[in-house]
Write a structure and sequence with these properties.
- The protein is an alpha/beta fold.
- A hairpin with a 5-residue loop joins strand 5 and strand 6.
- Bound molecules: ribose-5-phosphate.
- Ribose-5-phosphate (R5P) binds next to loops.
Length: about 300
């Protein structure tokens, strides 16, 4: 790894903490990966009083990072029922221009989503390699956390959704690289399946009557793909962080959001670029309502969206 990449991660982390670390927060989410290390460093160096702040980890590595920095960890399931996380910081493997993210490259995924969705504000920090116009550009697969017994069936269903690389390779269970042979296990003891898709994913702006983003011709829109994968039995979490941002979701009366409100990218020239999520995006459903009947399990009636 070259030092300019590390410098880029560090610069992005320091800028993100400088601009967003709230006054007197109660709970702060700390993500996983290599970039988040600099976020913790930035928090420590900022001189803010953290003696009354509890830091919520997104997995084993993140918890050790918090403890080693002398900060106070609190497990996600120890949060008081009505408490929100004031802010969550995390890295990403790829970020598109609408701030949808691919995450899970380091095999942390499910707990990252729990924390991001419970946060009033989710801030992403990354280096310039991660900034792409659309997802599945450089980072060619969508990581998916899968219950091991269901892995083969999940991969079969993924192939039915069109998961294949431009060279024809299908989804794969991620293997470990260490002495112990076999798949790597997540903090939940699950597998990660890496599912390639043949085209960069669309955002709602790209949709046309010809390209609905529903998988036809291999073209998927980010949220539609995330939902289609999440519907497969055995899938715990999909490494696509999309949907409403924190404030958007809070206004709508639902808890938090998965898509960051802002992303900080350390650039190769030493500068930091910040992207903010758009306040209002065209909704996929509003633009092209589903034509097929939607079966409502609750009423046993068939509802057709008009
Ligand atoms: O599974 C890992 C997480 O989603 C990471 O946040 C992501 O892979 C980015 O990691 P890094 O900061 O090391 O590039």
């Amino acid at each position: 790894m070259t030092t300019d990449i590390e410098a880029a991660k560090q610069a992005a982390a320091f800028e993100a903490v400088r601009n967003h670390f709230p006054e007197n927060p109660r709970f702060v989410g700390i993500g996983s990966g290599t970039t988040i290390v600099y976020v913790v460093e930035a928090i420590k160096q900022s001189g803010v009083d953290v003696t009354r702040v509890c830091f919520v980890p997104t997995g084993y590595q993140s918890k050790q990072l918090i403890i080693n920095a002398g900060l106070i960890p609190i497990e996600f399931d120890a949060l008081p029922d009505n408490a929100m996380i004031d802010i969550a910081f995390d890295g990403a493997d790829e970020v598109d221009e609408d701030l949808n993210c691919i995450k899970g490259g380091g095999a942390c995924l499910y707990q990252e989503k729990l924390v991001a969705m419970r946060a009033k504000k989710f801030i992403c920090v990354a280096d310039y390699r991660k900034l792409q116009p659309r997802l599945v550009t450089q980072w060619a697969t969508v990581p998916i956390e899968v219950e091991p017994k269901a892995a083969r069936q999940v991969m079969r269903r993924l192939r039915m959704l069109g998961s294949r690389s431009p060279t024809g390779a299908g989804p794969k269970i991620r293997e470990g690289h260490m002495a112990k042979a076999g798949p790597i296990k997540t903090d939940q003891d699950f597998f990660i399946v890496d599912a390639p898709f043949p085209h960069p994913l669309l955002i709602s702006d790209d949709l046309t009557a010809e390209k609905l983003g529903d998988g036809e011709g291999g073209f998927w829109e980010v949220e539609q793909l995330a939902n289609a994968i999440k519907d497969i039995n055995g899938v715990l979490a999909v490494g696509l962080f999309c949907g409403p941002t924190g404030p958007e979701a809070l206004t709508a009366g639902v808890v938090g959001g998965q898509r960051p409100v802002a992303c900080y990218f350390g650039m190769a020239d030493g500068t930091v670029t910040m992207r903010r999520a758009r306040e209002k995006r065209p909704s996929v459903v509003a633009k092209y309502p589903p034509l097929i009947p939607v079966h409502s399990a609750e009423t046993e009636a068939v509802v057709v969206d008009s």
